[in-house]
Design brief:
The structure is a homodimer. Helix content of chain A is 57%, strand content 6%. Chain A is mostly helical. Chain A has a single domain, classed as Arc Repressor Mutant, subunit A (Orthogonal Bundle), CATH 1.10.10.10. A two-stranded antiparallel sheet of chain A has the order 1-2. In chain A, helix 2 crosses helix 4. Chains A and B meet through helix 1, helix 5 and helix 6 of A and helix 1, helix 5 and helix 6 of B. The first copy, chain A, binds a DNA duplex through helix 4. Chains A, B: This is MarR family transcriptional regulator.
Chain lengths: 162, 162
DNA sequence: TATTGTTATACTCTATAACTATA
DNA sequence: TATAGTTATAGAGTATAACAATA
């Protein structure tokens, strides 16, 4: 063998670091009554006003019944509105409310705090290098920061295949 | 503000990358009848022969009833044995069987494949830099590659605090 | 009485299937 | 009949509480 005795633990540690990051973010947004899943949905709806629940399910790589639960939560908190589409009354248009848009600022602050907390042990040059490589890997693997279902691939249908 | 318009998405992307890595590992060990949780437990038991379930629960930052389920699964698959401690018959000594030790090789191969798949988009120098920084972050945040409960801190009791 | 492990139970998350209303 | 959304139900995964065996 050509490589030294170092075990291949980078993959394990990436998993652990990701779980740590997710837990930290969850903790930071909990006071706002949000979870990583609902926060991601709020961001998507704010970016794509008038989205239908069916489209949102596709975007999340999830199923309509799951979307009902997530939107129920956001609507109950007054952050998102459901409006029947007059053109086709089967559709619900989803939009962020004023309160929902204000919460986006809170989410941004939480994301900044999360990133700062995670990167805190590093030297400034290491932070730059790490952030750049993480961005490259996320892009190469097709990951979407707003999708907190499964493992967040943009083309969520192919999750089972290698 | 002093920084440019770049959003602080490194934390999000670390979460997504971690979930992606975990899903890939889960997929790789599924044919062996293992999950990330049971694989981590098998590794711990192999490294610390004779561990009790109570000690394992502490090690995992989990509860005894959870350990029962995990050990049941490994024992049912013939990978781990429970033996009553003659000195104190309340304790169960946990040990990896021969089959369990053989599966450790499979786990190592899976971890190698997982790491290779994740790092594949990077240049060789980037891989080195990334692995070193991930190791530094994991150490600084007290993460344990065998703990797949919650977010895997070695001192699992303090999970709720910042 | 205290400790180890187990069982019973419940809660969360997420999916499938059946159903309602619209078209 | 086909589609959007909802409800009912079920299955993981993980926790708390009650319990049995042992000390």
């Amino acid at each position: 063998m050509t490589t030294p005795r170092r075990p291949p633990r980078t993959g394990f540690l990436v998993s652990q670091l990701g779980a740590f990051a997710a837990a930290r973010f969850a903790e930071l947004i909990k006071p706002a009554g949000l979870t990583p899943a609902t926060a991601g949905v709020l961001r998507i709806i704010a970016m794509e006003p008038g989205l239908s629940q069916r489209e949102l399910a596709t975007r999340l790589g999830s199923v309509p019944s799951r979307v009902v639960v997530l939107v129920d939560s956001l609507e109950g908190a007054g952050l998102v509105s459901r409006t029947r589409d007059p053109a086709d009354r089967r559709h619900h248009r989803l939009d962020a409310t004023d309160a929902g848009r204000r919460v986006l600022g809170t989410l941004r602050t939480a994301a900044e705090t999360q990133s700062r907390d995670i990167l805190e042990p590093l030297e400034p040059e290491e932070r730059e290098a790490f952030s750049a490589i993480v961005a490259k890997l996320a892009a190469a693997h097709g990951l979407d920061p707003d999708v907190h279902t499964g493992y967040g691939r943009k083309d969520a249908g192919d999750a089972a295949r290698g």
